[in-house]
Specification:
This protein is mainly alpha-helical. The chain has one domain. The protein contains twelve helices and no strands. The radius of gyration is 29 Å and the shape is elongated.
Length: 320
């Protein structure tokens, strides 16, 4: 193998590591298509999950009215009988109106839940289209990220890769300086591959949780609505359950915005790091350039993953 080919081969190998890291992250992001929570979804695998949730709902819906009746009687005993005689008719009217509202909600519960999920899906899909979908090949994250690491590797190649001839000839210091820079890019490529893979996987898991959690809540909503016939704790539980369900449905919008804004950090030169290693001339400068390039490439992905994983707690604070 010629001497000219060896540096080119090393450069291509290093670039191959980083390109595969970006490809892996893109493949994982592609899974994040936010399939519909509604029965009108055209993807059969998610349609089966919806059918399972609907089946569980149908099994439990018949106990809603009996539970509501029991807790209505408890509410009458707790709030009406304990009131002075002159206040009892008014309190009974309040409890009766609540019971009628519960019966109306119970009779139309699945329709109400379907409207909420359909609204959240339409909003999520609108935001998804506004963000340009889940393709990131043409985004600043992709172009600037790869450009940053490629320019750093090409710039380092101009100084040459470590050669064993330098070690044999006794130029140990030069060899060690070069090998440290080369290992920084090589190990950094492996770390980038791991970071991109784990971060993309965590985003996929958050997306799947966002789909599964509302569907799990749908069957048990029948019981919670029945408990709402009892004033006080039962009523608060029902409204808290409704707000939590809405929050889980709406978390798709937050996840999309977190991914879009988190990856946009790739176009920013945080802390003016590019000025620190501008025109590196020594091996120390080249080593710092390698570390800065790795930091700039991995930082947006790590921040995005952290934002997505905080979606549940963030939405809980909004809708609590």
């Amino acid at each position: 193998m010629s001497a000219q080919m060896r540096p080119l081969l090393a450069e291509n190998f290093l670039l191959f590591l980083y390109e595969k890291a970006f490809d892996l992250f893109q493949a994982l992001i592609e899974v994040m298509q936010f399939p519909c929570l509604t029965q009108g979804n055209s993807r059969p695998e998610w349609h089966e999950i919806w059918i399972a949730a609907k089946g569980c709902f149908d099994l439990l819906k018949d106990i809603t009215i009996p539970i509501a009746t029991i807790f209505f009687i408890i509410a009458i005993y707790k709030t009406v009988i304990s009131k002075p005689p002159e206040e009892q008719p008014k309190q009974f009217l309040v409890e009766a109106l609540r019971f009628i509202m519960i019966l109306f909600i119970a009779g139309n519960l699945f329709t109400i839940l379907s409207l909420i999920t359909e609204f959240s899906e339409n909003l999520t899909n609108a935001v998804l289209n506004l963000c340009g979908g889940t393709k990131i090949e043409n985004s600043k994250f992709w172009t600037d990220g790869l450009a940053t690491i490629k320019n750093a590797i090409v710039e380092n190649e101009k100084n040459g890769n470590p050669k064993f001839s330098e070690l044999i000839e006794g130029d140990i210091v030069v060899f060690c300086e070069k090998i440290f820079v080369f290992l920084s890019y090589f190990l950094g490529g492996l770390v980038t591959l791991l970071v991109f893979g784990s971060s993309g996987f965590s985003i996929v898991m958050a997306t799947i949780h966002r789909i599964i959690k509302p569907l799990i809540m749908i069957p048990f909503s029948t019981i919670v609505v029945g408990l709402g016939a009892c004033s006080g704790e039962g009523e608060r539980m029902m409204w808290h359950y409704a707000k939590s369900f809405l929050g889980y449905c709406m978390s798709g919008v937050f996840i999309l915005m977190a991914v879009k804004m988190g990856l946009s950090l790739a176009s920013l030169d945080l802390f003016n790091l590019s000025e620190v290693v501008k025109n590196p001339t020594t091996e120390g400068d080249r080593l710092m350039a390698a570390l800065v390039a790795l930091f700039r490439v991995n930082l947006p992905v790590v921040i995005t993953s952290g934002l997505v994983k905080s979606a549940d707690s963030f939405m809980e604070k909004i809708f609590s």
